[in-house]
Each structure stands twice: as C-alpha cells, then as structure tokens.
Amino acid sequence: MSMYSPPAQGLTTEEAFSKLLQELTGVLDTYNHSRGRTWSEIIKGSFSTRSHHTSISWCSFLVLIIESLIILSLAIANYGTVFRSLLTEAILMLLLVIFNASLMIWENYKRLNELPVKLVKTMTKLEEMIHTWDDSNYPDLYMPYSPCISTQWCYRDGRLVNLPWSFLVPGDLIILLPAQKIIAKCHLFKAEETLLLPGSVFIPPGEEASSDPESEPPKIQEDDIPNLHVPMKSTFAIVLESPYKKMVEMSFESFLKRPKTFYIKERHRIVTGLIECVILPLALMIFVSLCIVRMFYLPHWLGIRVAPWTEILILQPIVNTFSLIPVALPFLYVFLHCVANAKIHTLYSVLKNSRNMMKLDVDEKESVPLTYYHVDLSLKSIYPEVWNFFKGREETLHRSQKLMHVLATVTALCCVDKKGILSWPNPTADKIFFLKSTVNPNTKKREVNQEILDVTHDNRNAFELHFDDPTWESNLSSLKPIGLNILLNNCNYRTRATYSCFHSHITNELQSKANDLVVPVVARRCLCELARIIGFTEKATSVFKLEQELCSYRHIESDAICRDKLTRAKIKFPFPHMMSVVIKEKIYQTLQLMSQGTGDMILDVCDDFWDGSDLRPLNNEERKLILDFYQRSSLTSVCAAFAYKPLQAKVSHHLASLYMELPPSKGTRYLPYYALNNGTPHNLAKDSSVSTDCIYNMSEKRRSREKEVTDLDGCFEVQTNQIFLGMVAMQYEACMDMVQLIEHLDQACIRFVHFSKENELRSRVFSEKMGLESGWNCHISLRPLTEEEKLEEEREEQEQSLFTQRSSDQPESVHFYCTSEVDSRKQFLPATANRRPTLNEIFGGSKRPSLNDSGDDDSKLPRCSSSVPEMVMLSRSVRESSLDPEEKRRLLDIDLDHEIASVCERSRVSFHQQSGSESSLSPGPDLNSNKDDSLSIHTLPNPVVTSSGFREKGSVIRFADSVDDTTTLPDSAINQRAVSNLRVTDSFNRQRNLTPTESYNDAYEMAEHKTPLGYDMSNRAKLPRGIEEVRPHLEHVDNVPLLVSLFTDCTAENSREMIKIMQDYGEVILLVGSVSNHENSGLFLQADASVGLEPLYPQACQKQEIYVPPNVGKASPTEVSMLLTSLPCSLALKRSDPISFYHLIAHSRHYMNNCIRNSVQFWLCCQLSLTLLGLISLLMLIPPLFTIADTMWLSCFVIPVLSLALSFATMDTVDQEAMELASWKNQVTLDRSILMYVLYFYGLKFIFSLVNLSLMAAFNLRWICESHLKNVNNTCSWVYPVVTLTPEMKSEEKTQGSMKCISSWACGDNAEKLLFVQQYTLFFLVLYFISISASFVYRTKHIWVKNPILNKTWFFISLGLLVIQFIYAVIRLRFSSIFHLVLAVSYGWAFLWAPIVIGINELLRRLEIKINIRFQKRARLDYGTKLGMNSPF
Q: What is the pLDDT of residues 378-406, one digit of tens each?
C-alpha cells in the first residue's frame, strides 16, 4: 500500500487534542481518588516522625497541647494566681499548634498534588495553544534520524506530517517505515490481530528477522549475482494507546519516590529524630527529676522556703523545655525556601532571556562573575514571586523535586543525549581525502600520494567551516569535483525522499539478516558549506537537471572468528551502500552519474581516480590508502565517499525504482568489462566516453545520443567503472558552552557523566572533544556480555596463564634473518572471449565453468574492498577449524616451544639480503635443530593478527604466506619489534628498493597495532562490563565505577539502573536530557532532579529550515510538545537558549549553605542554649532565669528574627568561593567524630556565655539579697533571702494553713527584684547571641578579612533587636526605675563579655577553617583519584 494514498484522512488536530485532554482528565481523576486527595496520607506526611516532609512532628504537638491544657485547667480551677496570669501563654501555645499544623498540612497537600496541578495548568495552556498548523510548521518529514528526537509520520487534518510523539492518540493513522522502532501501541491497518508494542522494531509483513542472533551472513555461492529488490513499502497502522498518557501515569506513580535530599535528611535526622524524639522527652524527665530534688533539698537542707509543687514540677520543666519544640522552624524553613526559590527562578528567567550571555572563560575565575547581571533580587522586588511560590508555582516542582537542594549538593551532572545537546545536531566536515600524483624528481617516476585537508568548524555557527591549511586553494582542481557532487547528489532537495526510503530498506535488511558487524549509518549530511568555501555558488546547480536516482548495497561476509572478535570489541562499521544520481546538463544534454556512499562500496565500483589533472588507474596501493582512511574514519565519524562517471544512456524507470543488491565482500570484485573483453585495461584518460573535461569543468561539447538501459547487466554496468573523487570525514563537534561548563564543574568537584548510546570507541573520541577523561579507567560499557563472550574471556585468561608459564623457561636470544617480501599483487584475469560476458558468467553462473576450474589460485581474482578490517588470518583459521583438538594442541605447542619465547629478547635483530628473488625468514642457531619443525615465514601484504582478533593479553601475532608457513610473536615483544623495524626502515628500504608508500605500508604491517586500527580497547583496569556487574564490583572491589565520566552502550533501562546505583551510594544526580526523546521519561523520574532540553533539530540541508515557525503569537508543534513532555522536569528550556547551570548551581550553593543552612544551624544552637541555660540554673540551685513568656518571646521572635538576619545578610551577594568547594554525598551520619566536631565548634561558641550569664545572675541575686533584703528578720542563704518567722506569723500559718507568699523570692518587693534580674539576664543573653552571630555572617572569613559590622542588613537588624529587647524589659518591669539594684561593675563586665566572646569565636573559627580546608583537600583528592584495585600504575 503506497504511503501517498492513505486509506483514511486521519484525525483532525481538534479531535486529536480533545481525545488527549479527555484521557489526561481520566488519569487525574484516578490519581485524586487513589492518593492525591487522601487526607490520611496528607496527615501522615505532615506529622509522622518517619516523614521527611515535616519540620515539626506529632511529638512536639502533643507536648504543646498537653502543656497548654494543663495551664488552662489549673487557671480555670483557680489553683493559683500564677496560673491565672498564664492564660495568655496557654492560648498562644494552642495558636502555635494550629498555625504550624496548618502550615505543614498545606505544604504536604501541595507536595502530593504538585504534579497533578502542574498537569492541570499544562492542559489549560494546551487548550489556549491549540490551532491547526500548516505542514511546514511540523518538523521536516525527511529530517535526519536523531536518537534524541522521537517523531512519527502521521496523518493530521488529512495531511502527512512528522508528528511529535506526545501528540499521538488512539485512532491516529500512522505510517510505519521498515525497521522503525515503535513508539506507541498499535495494530496494522485492517489487521487488528497484528499488535505492535512500544519498543519493538517493525519488520514489514513477509520479512522475518532471523531468530538466531548468532546466525552468520549468507555465504558466497557460485551463482551469487547482483539482485534487484523492490523497495520495502511503508505500512499503515492505527494507534491504540497514547504514549503520553502512559508517561503521565508513570510520572504520577514515581514522582514522590525520588531520593530525599541531603538537607531534608539532615533536618529530619537532627530535629525530628534527635531533638523531638530523644532530647525532648529525655529533657522533660531530667528537669522533673531535678525539680523534685530542688523541692526537697532547699527547705530541708538550706531552710529556704520554695514555691508550691505545681510551680516547681509543672512550670519550670515547661519553661526550660519549650525551646526544644521547633515552633518557629516550619515558618523559617518555608519562608526562606520560598525566597531562595524565587531568587533562583528569577535569575533563571533573566539568564534564559539574555541572548548576550557572557561566555565562561576557563582560564580566569574572575571572568565568571556570579553577579554579572544587574538583576534586582531584593526581597522587595521579588515579593510577588515569593508569595506565588508559597501559594503554588507547581510548574517548578519545588516541593516534590527540590531543585535548589539538588543544585546545591549535586555531585554528578548526567547527560543522556548527545546530538543537539552536547554536540551540534549536524556533523560537519572534519577531513577531506583525495589522491594526488606527483613526479619524483629523483626517480622521474610518478608517485601517488594521499592528501588530507583538515577543516575546522566555527562553534559560533552550526555549519560554518574553514580550512586549516592556508594553501588549500592549490588543491582546487581536486576539490571542485567533490563540491559539485555534493551539490548535485548529497544536498539535492529532490533526492531526500528516495534516500529516506533507501535507508529504511537497508536498515530492514540488517534487521532481517541479524548482522552484528555493521550498522546503517546515514552518510548523507549537509555539506553545502564545504561546497561554498570551495567556490560554488547557489546558481551552480541551475544548469543541471536531476534525471534518475539509483541505489545499491551489499552485505558483508566475514569468517566467524573475525565477526565474533569485532562484535566482542563492540566495533561496528557502516553498512556498504551507495546512492547515485543521473544528472543531465541542460546546455549540452550530456548525462553524468554522481555517486555517494560508503568508502568500501564506492571503491568497489571505481577503476580510476581523479588526481586533479588527469585520470589514473586504481591499483592495490591506492586502494589500500583509500580503505585505510575510510576504515579509520568510519570507526569514529561519518565518512562519505564520492565518485563520478559520464554516461551514454539512462536506466529505465522501472529499473531505477529498484534497489540493487551486490554480492557480499568475500566474492570477486566487480570486474571491469574492458578487462574481460581485452585482457588489459584501457587508458580511460584517452577514452572519449570518459573525458577529463567532463569531470573538471563540464565543458564537453558533444552531445551523446540518449539510450535507455532495460536489463540487469546494463544497470550493473551503469554503476560500475566509476572514477573515484575523494572522501569527506564528518564529526559531531562539541558545543563550546558545554565544554566550558564541564571545565567549571570540574573545578567545583562536580563530575560530568555522559551516558552514551554509542559504542566505546565513538564515545571515547567524543568525550575527549568534550574535555572528559577517557583513559584506562574512565569509561564503562553497560552492555552485558553474552555467555559466549564470557567463555571466550575465561579461555583467553587460561591461555595467558599458560603463555606466562611456558615463556619463563625459553631461551633468551634469537637471531632473525629477513629479506624482501614477495610481491603479492596480481593482474586481472584475462578475458575468455571477445564478447562482453553476462553477469552470470562474471559471478559464477551456470553458463560458464567456475572460476576455480582454471586451476589458478582464487587470490588471482580481484576481491571486494574490505568493509571490516581483514585482520584475521583466514587460511589458518579455516585450516584450524577442520582439525581435531589434539592436532590444534600440537600446533599450539610447536608455536610456543619454537617461536613465542624465542623473541622475548628483540635487542639483537639483524636483517640481511639473501640471494635470489625470494627471501625467507628462518630461526637462528639457538632454536630447536629439528628441521621438520622449523617454519618458513613470509610477510603478508596486508596486516594480520591472531585468531584472538585484537590481540589482547596472551594473544600473538602471526605472519604467514601460506597455510603451512606460520610463526608467532608474543605480545610482549610486539612494541620492541616495532621499534626495531622503524630503526632499520631507511637502510632496509634501500636494500629492497621500496618507494616511500611501500615503505610506509610495510612498516605498518611489521609494527602492528595491539588493537583494531590502532585504538586501545583493552580493559586494563578490570572494570565491570555490563550493568549487572557494577554493583558486585562496588561491593567487593573498589568504587571506580562511581568515578568514571563515561558510560557506553547505554539504553534507557541500563542507564536508569546505573543512576539508581549511583544514588544508592550517595551520589546526587542532576539529569539533563532531551524532552523530545520518549525514552527519557523514566530517567527524568529516577534522577534527584531533572532539566529537560529541547534539542537542536538536525537538518537535511542548511538551505532548508527544519520547520517554519507559525505566525507571531502562536506556538509551534515543537513548543507545544515541549510543554507536554517537560512534565516531570523542574526546568525546561530550549538548547538554543543560554545554558545557565553554572550560575544556578553557584546561587543554589550559596543560598542553601551560606544562608538557609547557616541560619538554621544558628537557630538550633540558640534554642538548645536556652535549655542548657535552664539546666545550669537548676544545677546551681538559683531561681529560674526566665518565665514562660520570656522563653516564648525568645523562641518565637528574637531568635527567628536574628536567624533571618543571617540569611538575608549575605543573600544578595553570592560568594565567589561557592564553586570552589567540594560538595558532599547524600549521606547523613552521626558518628563520634561528627558529635565531637559539633560539641567543639558549636558548643564552645555558646557554653562560655551561658556559664557567664549564670554566674552573673547568681552574683546579682546574692548582691541584692545582701545589700537590699538583709535585715533583722531576713538573712541570706546562698542567693535566697530567708525570712525569720515571728510568733504572729507562725500562729497565722497554723490558723490559715498556708502563707500567701511561700517562696522567699516571690514575697512582696522580692518578686520585682527577681524579675529585674531575669530581664537583666535576658537582655545580655540577646546581646551575646548577637555577638556570637557575628561569626556566622561570614563563616569562612575572619573578622579582619570581612567585618560583619559592614553588613548593613545584619548590623541594623541586630541593633534593632537590642532596642526592642530593652523596650520589652522596660515593659515587663512596668517602667519602674530599679536599674540601680545591680552594681556598675556588673554592667561593665556584662558588656565587656561581648567582645571577649567574639574573640573566643574567632579562635574557634580559625581552627574550624583549617579543618574545613583539610576536608576540602581530602574531598578533592577523593574526587580526582580513580586508582582502583586493578590499577596498572
């Protein structure tokens, strides 16, 4: 069924989005009924001691309620005047309970419903943004494939468009291309029984993939000839489920399961777990016990009258433990987080909209100012945003995802997509390869050399290029044919549909043949810019007309050993294919064939090459140069080859619409017809049909009579005998802003981790461009090993141990005698007749005898170009496969006994020339003299390695010329042999009369690389291979997997599992990924926080926009899709917007560590100090220093305001050192060292002041007792006045049963004097809290470096608190002038203690800074050290 004749019109835009909204409404209703509106879960999250989402638990509420009820009960019962005066305090306690409970319920309600509310807002925006778009508003149908973008061909409004995946709804009519990955559950049109599930690969009906993944590609048979195939047709299907609905359901299920942040864990562990659940009940028991002792000890042992038991056993424990109840923490925590979030998102909005964002300079820290943008982030300007964050702002997910917490403690910034995010979306030209012939002035012979021009990409533009070589214009004669081919074929707008269909066809071919050696690489990418700098203008193609498009491909065939080794090494090569266009010149009506494809395929159809001035025949040396460049380039980049041919005739329309499959690579190469006809090649430069004018300036002046080829032979002939022009290697260039970001993150000890979907080799090359480490222990493949690969590794380890054991007993010196090699280049097979043979005759059909029947060796036939490195000795592997195990063991023993250990010492290697045309390499006299076992050895013209493929540990090199002539070299001697070869190269070449090219090739053959094509793929660090081996490695070996910056062979499943493993070991993950990739939804939900980026879309050609934006004021389909797919992300932005991660991380670190965490620590210390001060007063047996009102005044106003002053003191100025400090892992431990640190650096800052206050209070009480209360009837016992009872008082006590004034400090004027001492103590306690807070303003700076007095915010708030506290004291004393009761020296000492405590804290801060510096050095050492247990260093 043709894709251009749809069976139905599909849904309209309105119908589709109406269905989508209806489905989303159903998901919301289900969630609200099951969880979102369940008050039991909200209450549990608000008050449970196990909940990490509450700042005050039910323990504190229970204590507050009981205390307030006791006071209210005693007051109502008229138990005493004291309790009647505490009605206000009891009511305030109940109000605090109501306020904090309401605040916690509000926060948890908003947290549980944050994502659903965000979805509701998204649906509201969606209804406003929906309108009918034009075809051009959607992404281009033939947009190059990108793994970061998921789109689907779909019919909307009766038109075929490239629909974003989130728009798919049930009932959509879609088109499935061959080998396409299914996005949504669907069934084939009018075939409802054929269900296709998401994640599966669509194989068109009639094409079944091989069930055996290890099945070999088809073998070459005698009757293998080119075949014509009908292109795979696209298939219509009907969508059954919306993929976006599935994503929303998964998001609702998982968004509350994110790991708790470090700050949440720390607060819960200290406040809830330690203070509320341990210290508070323990303190109540201690204070009650001490009050009982006090109640009996004072009257019986000191004769001091005390207050009633209710005041001692109820009021004093309440007063001294009230500060342990975090009544102010919920407000502090919520308010400060709203302010900080408002600042962060305001800054983000400014940076996002700033197109002139300053680039990060990696050399100078000063060039990255964190306050560069003059943004007003004061509380006054952002107050509306603060209120919005309290009410909601659910789109930021600031309650459930805690982005600011994650940014402040992030240890790994992970990116799961490359193209369009880390790199530019389009690969750009990196190297240009062509052949050039020159005349050697010494030999007067023409030599062919390879020319490689380097091209550099300008990172400010997606396509702009320039040549590195200033003399590149001298090669214009070679570059112009390539440039014209690019414009007429590669970047021809009319060829896009054909190539898209062709690429789907060959992808399906690979799926059906289950070949794991090659991949369908898209080699056709925009090279218009290259053609432009070569000299072509836009009008250059106006004189040509596209006539036809021809497509051909072939499978590869390699022996089982080579395939297994390449597969295990995870090396894949492009699938050989070629696309040719027949072009007609409008003026002269001449036909020309322009071909582009993979290097091996293009080389197979070429017999000549253009050297810039003339045509030259391709021989084996040139072919080897071309293949070497192609194979190396295609391992790490995209490599496109170009060819050309003048034509006499077109191909019939029917044949042109078919795809030609050529025989696999192990068959004979496509023999030129002139070779079969005449036995010798023509001089094509002189042939009228192959004019040099045609290839250079297209000035052929004769018109050929057009013909039409209608048979397979003619179609095959049209695409062969071409002229090789050159190759272009293209690379994905890293975006410089990301490279600079990685540099700065590294300075902050934040590891950038790339989860690459590509293999190890390609991933390592790109990671080096990114500035990531890619050495011996810096990457891990997450692809699990198969059982066969595991057995192969075990076998190689056994061989290595055997090799080590045998080599220890071998001779130490060997002499080798080497002479020239045998020329292995053969001529073409002579013709058998004067007629043109048919294809059946060429490729072994039944019309002629087999080529092998001639008796000649099959190697005389020219062979296809190697699509994969031919580095396995095929003849020996074939022979060994036919031997029994005993014979194989005998051969291995011969190799080991006679050769392996013999060359371990290669210091004495001598070469000498033998007489005769051939040379032999024979072992020296130290070898075994048995002549039957000695081996004659020759070097092959092509590099070969052992059957172990890439010569890992224990493997050997074999040089052989025939089946029976083999020897082995140990792995340890390879590098030494290479050095020896290079040393004798010059003299050796003179003896052998080799050309420089032959010398280079021979040196390459003799000094083989240890790995394929010279890339080190060994696993020397013994890192785990496969996701299932990572966790056992971490548990039993070392932690290197947590320190690597690159994971390769990643899928969505193993990437999510690896992120979970990292989180289990304390890593804080900030995930950055493409919101256009439907596979990233689960990853966004797994990470601690996620940022969605809309990637840059790839373009088929820079002249064609990927989509046309709608009219002003209307959103494009990609913008609407971004709104939908960013649902689980805290932030969502376009990749074209400035990346502001560095600034956001710096500000978040500053707000959380220097502002919020610092102020909460100070608040906590002050609250504990109040309890500790009450404990000291009890132990000193002095009256209570505070009343309930005083304690509530301090806990609810003074200390919170002073804590807020610390937060706002530095909130507007971000410390530059914030990004120089190493973060910590998401692990909260309270061990002995942590407790000692807290007691030393926090306890000592407060304890001296508390003791000083207690002593001053005792001194003042004693002084007042001695000087103002002591008389005939009163004496002083400790600090208490003792009243001597007169007979009248005793009789009154007997008759009334009690005294109106029982406590000695509560009688008459004594109560006022005690109240004065309490207010005196309270005032100076506030002063000391302010003095101590001076060391909290700038925690890492000494007072002489940064004076806190210069901080206006802190200074004026502190000064205002002192004034307010003085007013409070005057009010409590009822404006009585009793300040003279205390000596002036007491006032002087109290004020003098403030600078003393500042000095003590400076000494403690000095030690604290030293310890923190030591900790930072250790943290940086841990961050930068990756030497694991298996380190080779």
A: 888 888 999 999 998 889 999 999 999 99
- Cβ contacts of 704 within 8 Å, gap of 6 or more: 589, 590, 591, 647, 648
The pLDDT tens digits of the residues spanning 606-661 come to 999 999 989 999 999 999 999 999 988 888 888 999 999 999 888 999 899 999 98
Distances (CA, A) of 496 to 793, 832, 913, 1100, 1104: 45, 43, 59, 8, 12
d(CA 1063, CA 1082): 15
Rounded CA gap, 848 and 887, in Å?
Answer: 39
Residues 6+ apart with CB under 8 A from 1390: 1256, 1320, 1324, 1327
Q: Which residues contact 1193 (CB under 8 A, 6 or more apart)?
A: 1368
Q: Decide: 571 and 759 in contact? Cβ < 8 Å.
A: yes
Task: Tell me the C-alpha distance between 796 and 955, whole Å.
Answer: 8
Q: Shortest CA distance to 733 belongs to which of 462, 409, 1083? A: 462
Find residue 196's DSSP bridge partners.
186
Main-chain dihedrals φ then ψ at residue 986, nearest 5 degrees: -60, -50
Closest residue by Cα to residue 755 from 1140, 1041, 1141, 1054 = 1054
Q: Confirm if 953 and 796 have CB atoms less than 8 A apart.
A: yes
Tokens representing residue 1206 in the block: 């610390």
> Residue 736 has what DSSP assignment?
H
Question: Which residues on adjacent β-strands are paired with residue 1232?
Answer: none
The burial class, CB within 10 Å (0-12 / 13-18 / 19+), for 1197 is middle
Name the token pair of 747.
């300075």
- Across 557-583, b (16+ Cβ under 10 Å) vs e yields bbbebbbbbbbbbbbbbbbbbbbbbbb
Instruction: Give the residues of the chain that fall short of pLDDT 70.
Output: 1-5, 36-37, 80, 206-224, 300-307, 355-374, 514-516, 558-571, 665-706, 775-776, 800-801, 803-1021, 1270-1274, 1283-1304, 1306-1308, 1426-1433
Cα–Cα dist 367/536, whole Å: 41
List, in sequence order, every residue forming a beta bridge with 403; answer none if it has no partner. Answer: none
Torsion angle in degrees (nearest 10) through CA of 368, 369, 373, 376 = 150
Whole-number Å distance between alpha carbons of 1082 and 247: 8
Q: Let me know: does 184 contact 242? Beta carbons within 8 Å.
A: yes
Angle between helices 996-1006 and 985-992 (to 10 degrees): 120
Q: Is the dihedral of CA 862, 868, 872, 876 positive or negative?
A: negative
Q: Which residue type, as a one-letter code, is found at position 282? A: L
Q: End-to-end CA distance of the chain: give it in Å, rounded.
A: 63
CA separation for the pair 151, 590 (Å, rounded)? 41
For residue 841, what pLDDT is reported? 46
pLDDT for the residue numbered 354: 73
Exposure b/e, 1215-1242, CB count within 10 A at least 16 = b: beebbebbbeebebeeeeeeeeeeeebb
Quote the pLDDT of residue 848: 35
8 Å CB contact between 679 and 831? yes
Reduced to 3 states (helix: H, G, I; strand: E, B; else coil), residue 1101 is: coil
Nearest to 579 by CA among 550, 556, 548: 550
pLDDT at residue 817, rounded to an integer: 36
Which residue bears the tokens 């982030």?
A: 377
Q: How much is the CA Rg of the chain, to the nearest whole Å?
A: 42
Residue whose tokens read 């502002």: 1155
Q: Which of 1244, 1278, 1293 has its CA nearest to residue 1402?
A: 1244
pLDDT number for residue 37: 65
Torsion of CA 1320, 1326, 1328, 1333, to 10 degrees: 180
In the prediction, which pLDDT does 928 show?
37
